[in-house]
Amino acid sequence: xxxxxxxxxxxxxxxxxxxxxxxxxxxxxxxxxxxxxxxxxxxxxxxxxxxxxxxxxxxxxxxxxxxxxxxxxxxxxxxxxxxxxxxxxxxxxxxxxxxxxxxxxxxxxxxxxxxxxxxxxxxxxxxxxxxxxxxxxxxxxxxxxxxxxxxxxxxxxxxxxxxxxxxxxxxxxxxxxxxxxxxxxxxxxxxxxxxxxxxxxxxxxxxxxxxxxxxxxxxxxxxxxxxxxxxxxxxxxxxxxxxxxxxxxxxxxxxxxxxxxxxxxxxxxxxxxxxxxxxxxxxxxxxxxxxxxxxxxxxxxxxxxxxxxxxxxxxxxxxxxxxxxxxxxxxxxxxxxxxxxxxxxxxxxxxxxxxxxxxxxxxxxxxxxxxxxxxxxxxxxxxxxxxxxx
Length: 390
Prior knowledge:
Layout: E1 9-16, E2 19-25, E3 46-50, H1 52-67, E4 75-81, H2 88-100, E5 104-107, H3 122-127, E6 135-141, E7 144-150, E8 171-179, H4 191-202, E9 207-211, H5 224-227, E10 233-237, H6 238-244, H7 258-269, E11 274-278, E12 284-288, E13 291-295, H8 308-326, H9 335-352, H10 364-380
Helix pairs in contact: 1-8, 8-9, 9-10
């Protein structure tokens, strides 16, 4: 490097959703909510910053702070989302990012109404028609969680609002992660795909991952398949994969296992995309070119499953970038890179379910121990591709 030349900071750009999550833990005596009925909570309701994009940013930042990437800690995480910084939910989300966990929240709110860009106060913003920050009720019962969501001003987010940070001369953009696709209807019109295509054309070494999240409309469309050709890694749960592939268990489909069916489906739609399906306590599978590879994980009694998929995505992205940084001579996405990424993903997701709250990263020593356990499980066993119908 020439004298006087400033070294560029490595950058990971996360694009996605942020919500204020109101946690409701049902007690064991009334574990279900019945329309028109009542239910008891086992503890007081609490409100925390959440959302797939924010959770992933939080866990990824923690991994970088703990371990660096190839021992390089000079890395920044930028999180592009939409909030109303003038309401209490928005203030909570912004404080979580900028003050508590060290990543940069870039508010991409663009609106005809007064917004944070002009410093208007909450009263005038809401009185003139401004929308609140997204928020949702998180219902925790019997080891599972359900959501009731108001997307608020997040519904104004568009693909054209995303900053293309590959053109920022201060940064060396390494990776773009899109999170909560189905929670942002403004991404469904093709503009997001065009933005990702532009980034790829500018620098083909930049990798892109995407987490769709659950589709509350149950249509499982939103133009996602048109975006996939611009995505290197699609990371999703088994439920989400079955929804997107329209897998219904009919006689014709059931001649194949679900994983065989999904591998063929995604290969037909986007042959270049690596598909990673998370399976909870059963680990994850990787689908590419019709092949199915599995990584196991360790079993852990869940305290709160919320955000486990986001933590998996953070671990996967971290493991991939760390591996690629240490193996710069190897071109392309290798099987070793994918195996490392999935091991980190499984470890991070497993740690998350042992913590109360989706956006609270575990301690470094816990991650180190669980990662060792996950590696041991996969070294000790000959993990075969799943063959039984799920």
